[in-house]
Structure formats: C-alpha cells, structure tokens
Amino acid sequence: MPEFKRISSETEMAQNGAGPGRLMCNGTQSPSKMNYRSANGEGSPGPTSAEFRPIPRRFSPPSFDRQSSQTESERNGSSSRQELESLSASSSRANSPVWYNTRKYVPVIDRILKRQAAGTPFFSLEFFPPRTDSGASDLMAIFDRLARGRPLFCDMTWHPKGDPSNTDKPTSSTSMAGNMLNYAGIETMLHMTCVGLTTEQMKDNLYKAKNLGIRSILALRGDLPDGAEEWQKTDGGLDYAVDLVKLIKEEFGDYFVICVAGYPDGHPECKTYWEDIQHLKDKVEAGADLIITQLFFKNETFFKYVSDCRKVGITVPILPGVLPIQGYKSLSNMAKLSKLEVPKEILDAIEPIKTNDVAIRQYGIFKAVEICRELLNSGMVPGIHFYTLNREKAVTQVLKELGLWSEKIQRPLPWKQTANHNRVEEEVRPIFWRCRPNSYVLRTSEWNEFPNGRWGDSRAASFNDLQTYHLFYLKSRSPKTELLKMWGETLTSEEDVWKVFVNYLTGAQNEQGVKVTRMPWDDDEIEPETSLICEKLASINSRGVLTINSQPRVNAAPSTDLKVGWGSPGGYIFQKAYLEFFTSKENIAALKEILPRYPQVNYHIINHSGEADYTNCDEYQPIAVTWGVFPGKEIIQPTVVDPEAFKTWKDEAFALWLEAWAHIYPKNSESSRVIQNIHDGYYLVNLVDNDFPKESVLWDILEEMLTLKASTEETEISAASS
Ligand SMILES: Cc1cc2nc3c(=O)[nH]c(=O)nc-3n(C[C@H](O)[C@H](O)[C@H](O)COP(=O)(O)OP(=O)(O)OC[C@H]3O[C@@H](n4cnc5c(N)ncnc54)[C@H](O)[C@@H]3O)c2cc1C
Ligand SMILES: NC(=O)c1ccc[n+]([C@@H]2O[C@H](COP(=O)([O-])OP(=O)(O)OC[C@H]3O[C@@H](n4cnc5c(N)ncnc54)[C@H](O)[C@@H]3O)[C@@H](O)[C@H]2O)c1
Ligand SMILES: C[S@@+](CC[C@H](N)C(=O)[O-])C[C@H]1O[C@@H](n2cnc3c(N)ncnc32)[C@H](O)[C@@H]1O
C-alpha cells in the first residue's frame, strides 16, 4: 500500500482544514479522495493494483463544494464536530472557511458505544449467503423488510464452500454483503475465515470487501474443514483468528471495525475455558473492537462469561448471540455445528410439538423474548445479536415484543439511501431513477464523490452501463408467471398496454382479477403522494399518455406530512409538479405546438435513439424539483431534473420495455411485437411546472395535446375521404 504523506505545511493544513501534524492518510487507510485526485496527475501516490476500483471519470463537483476542503478523517466521521469547531476558532488558521457536513459516516463500534452510553439497546441480525439467484432475490426482499426495524448492523457469514470472495457470483458471501450495504441500505459486517486461504488471498479478499464499501469484519479462524480431525493451517495462511485481526490492522489500520467470536461455553477445541478466554483477550489486544458470542442456552452461562472476561481485562462490548428456535431440525443443526448440547428442559418442551412448525416457532419466540428480556435488564449488554437463519417472522415478532423494533415513519430524504460510507454525504439525485434506486446506485458506484448541497454540472459524470437488467437486485421481485398475470398473458393492441398503466395507478383488478402492483419502471406499489393526482393520472393514461414517474406540486407542506414529508420535523416541503411519460409520435406533434404557450414549463422530449431530442432547458442547468426548508439548516434540495442525466436515463427507460416487459412473451409473438412497437415509436417526455405556488398547468397542457391530436386526426381523415 502506498504511504500517504503527512500534511505538514501550514498552508496545506489551512487549505485542508487540518490541524498541525494531522495524519491525512497513514498508508494503512484508504487513499483519501484528495490523494486520488492528485494520483490522477499531480504526482502523489495513487491506488495500487490491490485497489480494485478503477479510477473513474470523476463526477464534477459543484463549484461551491464543501467536500473539497474536507479531510479524509472528516469524511470517515472520525473527526468530531468539537474538533472542527476548535479548529475554526484557531488563530493559526488562514481565512479559508472549514466546511463540515452534518452527515458523517459513523463506524459501527462508535454507534454501539454511543447507544451503550445512552442506555438505548439495539439489535443486529445474522444471515448466511443463499444458494441460488432466486434465493438471493428473496433474501434481498427480507433485508428490505427487516431494514424497516432499523438494525444497528447486519452480518453475512463466510461460506468456504460457496466461493465466498467471488464478487462476480451474486450469491457469494462478499457479494451478498455488498448488496445488503449498497442496495438494502443496511450497515453491514462481513464474516471472514482463514480456512483454505493464504495470507495474500485473505488480503485480496479484504480489499474486495473494502471496495464494495464494507467497513466491518467479523474475523474468524473458521470451522475445521469437512473430515478434518484437528485444525491445520493452510500453507502460507494463518493459524488463528488473532492472526487475521493482526493482518487487518497491519494492512488497513483503523479502516475496518473488527469483531471477533467469543464462546460462553468455551470453544470446543480449547483445553480449558480460561485458556480460551485468554485467547479472546489476545484477539482484543490485537485490535478487535467488539465480540459476538456463540449461541448459548442459559443466561447464567453468558453472565458468567462476561464477568470472567471483564475480570481478565476485556473491556470491549460483548454482544450475546441469540437463536430464536424456529424448528426442530434447525435447532439440532445449529447445536451440532456449534457443538453445544441442547438442555433437557428445551428438548422436553419441543419433543411433543416437533412436527408442528407453528407451535415450535411460537415456543421459540416465547423463549427468545424471555431470554432477551433478562439479558437487557441485566445492564450487561448494549444490544442483542440474533441468528436469523435467514427467516424474518420469528425474529421480527421477538423484536416487536421486546420493543426493539423501531419502524421509523419519517424519511431522512425522499429517496431510499444506501449505507455505503462513500455516499454518506450524498444529498441530491436526479428524479428519473427515483423508482429504481438500486439501478442508480449501481450506475454511479464508480463515482468517488457524490453531490451534496446541489447537483451542479453533470457533464463529467459517467454512469456505468446497464447491460445487466437481469441481476437479481435489478429485476422484478415477481416471477414471470405473476408478471404475466399482471401485465396480460397476451397483448393484442397498444390499448391493452394503456390499461395496465391505469390498473397500476388505480389499484383496480384487471380482467383476470389480478392487481397490478409492479411496473417495469417501478417494482413497488405507487407511493402515497401519488394518490393526490391519481385520478388525473389514470385519465391521461387511459388515453395513451403512459406515465412512469410523477409528483404533485407541494407548497410548504409540513415535513411530517404522511404523504410528502421527509427530513427532520418542524420543516416545510416544496415540490414542482412533475410528469414523465411515454406517448405516441402524433401526441408529440401536438405537444410541440402547445408547449410554447406555457413558458413556466420546462420540457424534454426524446425518442429511443436520441435522434429526436427537443428541450427548452439549459443543457447543463439542473432544475431543483423538490426542496425542504428546516429550522436552523440550509435548504436541502434532494431531487433535480437534469437534462444531461435524462439522456442516460432514457436508454434505461426505453430498454425496460424490451428487457422487462417484451421478454416475458415468446420471441416474435404478437404480445412482444406490441411492446416492441411502443418502444420504437413512442417518445419519452418530462415536464416540470416551475410555478409551484399555483395549480399545475401540466394537466391543461395534456388535455390540449389530446384534443389537438384528435382534431388533427379528424381533419386528416376527412381530407383523405374527400
Ligand atoms: C458469532 C460467530 C460467527 C461465526 N461465523 C462463522 C462463519 O461465518 N463462517 C465460519 O466458517 N465459521 C463461523 N463461525 C465458527 C468459527 O469459525 C468456529 O467456531 C471456529 O472453530 C473458531 O473460530 P474463532 O474465530 O473463534 O477461532 P480462534 O479465536 O482462532 O480460536 C480457535 C481455537 O483455537 C484456540 N486458540 C486461539 N489462539 C490460540 C493460540 N495462540 N494457541 C493455541 N490455541 C489458540 C482457541 O481457544 C479456540 O479453541 C462463527 C462463530 C461465531 C461464534
Ligand atoms: N454461532 C456460530 O457458531 C456460527 C455462526 C455462523 C456461522 N457459523 C459457522 O460458519 C459456517 C458457515 O455458517 P453458515 O451459517 O453460513 O452456514 P451453515 O453451514 O450453518 O449453513 C447455513 C445454511 O446454509 C446452507 N449452505 C450450506 N452450504 C452452503 C453453500 N456452500 N452455499 C450456500 N448455502 C449453503 C445450509 O444448508 C444451511 O441451510 C458453518 O460452519 C457454521 O458452523 C457458526
Ligand atoms: C418522481 S418520484 C417522486 C419524487 C419525490 N417527490 C421526490 O422528491 O423525490 C416517484 C413517484 O412516481 C410515482 N409513480 C410511480 N409509477 C408511476 C406511474 N406509472 N405514473 C405516475 N407516477 C408514478 C411514485 O408513486 C412516486 O411517488
């Protein structure tokens, strides 16, 4: 890894807002964004080949960019606000201001310590990687649902047999951890073991995790490989988990939060309980920040373990690993894997109900709640770690009964955020991907800066190509059979397609008695704010104005409003009316005649090839369409219409007709031809009504367009017949 220089000159310190002798990046941490920049031309060391992330074309930051004066440690959240305030007061500072952002990445261990100090318990959830792509898709849906309860973090186990480091394999441990972090927006910890790996391979695996944005590792030795009688390290590999902890520290400094495993019943291979505790202490002294325990069946075992750990000087948080019993088989499997004996009292209780899954689950929930209550009341645990076995129901119920499930209604921003620390300051996105946040995250994953404050000029922004519409986290969560029922087993005309749009918006059942809950452009049901304009939307869709995105105008709604609210309470939300739709060439001809009469409206009209491209927008001038005004804060404008980004989006929006819709029908079938014709012949339009305090004129424009088109057709017909 490169050695990054210590910022030493007064000028550099002032420019960077750093204090005297502040270490910008010590060679064991990630190169700072600043160093990335200089690596691109100003002679300072750049990323090595071990940094897998290619250097992308940088997103051009807005001219008044706060990031440009931030230090790496500020970005990592390791620099406290207090520290910055004292810097501002320092007389040695030059007159350039220190910009600091209120959004900072806070490492998991700091979050845990904060919650511990405040006495507000938390929970974390463990999952194992799925075997199949469809299993991965189901698991992602589980992550989305469990994320609502706000786990402090979730972790993904390391499966030596499942090619765990392969980031090209969607179901690997590393890929799934990256998906959980980047797409489900959950702070993620990845397990790693030493089994079958050389030190160099482990380093590579850690870099892969780092490049996905992962900041927490559960460092393990790993179970004995199948058939092995005793542990033998791999040639060129590591012996114990403590060696992996040391490797992480040596190579990455404080970049990763490190967690290790503890065994309240003693590790099965260790000669004595106390020797095992000494080995745990070695792991902590080598740099582990926290401990998660193996499951245990009696709380006394855990309490004794914690007080024994404290006696030998282990002071880091110890999270109890709790397994809600969910079935007879999974319990005996887990007990076998962890080499624990299930107490007779539990076996006696489940024996009579062992074939009744529901009864066993109810018993498991009852037992887990009882155990967790006692743990939480003991004052010895800051939170609880659950072995979910990839199932959500039991754990959700346990969390609800414990009062740990805290579904938050208030959204910090109107769009779904990721948990990637690189994007912690991201505050602005183009409206187009609003219903496809995973695609947006994927397409911008190579950026090393994200716009905050304002979107700026996106000429330099390069979006990753999207050729992988079939990646499980991009494609529909509904299987093809369900999509056929929603979108029509057969389509004979464009009007059949129009009806699908109307049914989606109104929630009405289609002719087969099925509700349309997904569309290619939106894999979720419509959002509450759409109900404000739903009737109007349905009316224009029924006449061939196929909307895929919209927002009503909003003039100072409270930020707590259930339909349009976001951000902290006490603020006000504003929106410009926005419509995005596909429509026919004939409608476009009429629209182009009408639009000049409405100067308060910005428009952009484009066809699939981009050859026809009409707009009255300044090409490089984004339009803020949503903003919030909050007490004691600057205005936040999280959503924009950006003409440059629209050109990128249009490729995706048009491709979805074919990739997501036509594909569900046999090739060359009538249904697929109907979709192909729409793709080839329709235009994509976006309209923004800038006059947000007044009733929106967008509906008038569309009515006029439809009337003009109808009368043109009539004229043409009568001309042809005369
Ligand atoms: C929370 C949790 C998560 C887990 N996740 C996974 C997973 O994702 N994938 C997976 O394969 N396994 C996982 N395991 C299982 C784990 O890999 C096994 O229990 C393994 O046998 C021990 O791993 P460890 O990291 O605790 O090892 P270590 O801490 O290395 O200990 C292993 C044994 O060696 C002894 N020991 C340690 N240091 C020394 C020394 N210097 N000299 C002599 N003896 C020493 C210890 O006392 C212990 O008996 C997990 C376990 C837990 C508790
Ligand atoms: N508390 C603990 O001791 C603890 C916690 C987590 C993991 N582990 C250990 O870690 C190892 C891996 O743990 P885990 O929970 O991920 O798996 P596991 O071996 O406990 O199996 C969990 C599930 O994954 C399935 N599976 C097995 N092999 C697979 C593969 N190659 N690819 C995909 N799925 C597979 C299994 O059928 C099972 O349903 C195990 O050896 C386990 O002992 C231990
Ligand atoms: C444009 S955004 C809303 C933007 C949000 N107000 C913001 O500031 O980020 C997405 C909206 O489009 C709506 N929507 C989804 N599918 C639609 C469709 N087919 N037609 C019209 N609106 C749709 C969603 O319900 C959602 O409210």
From TrEMBL:
<keyword id="KW-0274">FAD</keyword>
<dbReference type="InterPro" id="IPR004621">
    <property type="entry name" value="Fadh2_euk"/>
</dbReference>
<protein>
    <recommendedName>
        <fullName>methylenetetrahydrofolate reductase (NADPH)</fullName>
        <ecNumber>1.5.1.53</ecNumber>
    </recommendedName>
</protein>
<comment type="pathway">
    <text>One-carbon metabolism; tetrahydrofolate interconversion.</text>
</comment>
<dbReference type="GO" id="GO:0106313">
    <property type="term" value="F:methylenetetrahydrofolate reductase (NADPH) activity"/>
</dbReference>
<dbReference type="GO" id="GO:0009086">
    <property type="term" value="P:methionine biosynthetic process"/>
</dbReference>
<keyword id="KW-0560">Oxidoreductase</keyword>
<dbReference type="GO" id="GO:0035999">
    <property type="term" value="P:tetrahydrofolate interconversion"/>
</dbReference>
<feature type="compositionally biased region" description="Low complexity">
    <location>
        <begin position="57"/>
        <end position="69"/>
    </location>
</feature>
<comment type="similarity">
    <text>Belongs to the methylenetetrahydrofolate reductase family.</text>
</comment>
<feature type="domain" description="MTHFR SAM-binding regulatory">
    <location>
        <begin position="411"/>
        <end position="708"/>
    </location>
</feature>
<feature type="compositionally biased region" description="Polar residues">
    <location>
        <begin position="26"/>
        <end position="38"/>
    </location>
</feature>
<dbReference type="Pfam" id="PF02219">
    <property type="entry name" value="MTHFR"/>
</dbReference>
<dbReference type="InterPro" id="IPR003171">
    <property type="entry name" value="Mehydrof_redctse-like"/>
</dbReference>
<dbReference type="GO" id="GO:0005829">
    <property type="term" value="C:cytosol"/>
</dbReference>
<dbReference type="Pfam" id="PF21895">
    <property type="entry name" value="MTHFR_C"/>
</dbReference>
<dbReference type="InterPro" id="IPR029041">
    <property type="entry name" value="FAD-linked_oxidoreductase-like"/>
</dbReference>
<dbReference type="GO" id="GO:0071949">
    <property type="term" value="F:FAD binding"/>
</dbReference>
<feature type="compositionally biased region" description="Low complexity">
    <location>
        <begin position="78"/>
        <end position="93"/>
    </location>
</feature>
<dbReference type="InterPro" id="IPR053806">
    <property type="entry name" value="MTHFR_C"/>
</dbReference>
<keyword id="KW-0285">Flavoprotein</keyword>
<feature type="region of interest" description="Disordered">
    <location>
        <begin position="1"/>
        <end position="93"/>
    </location>
</feature>
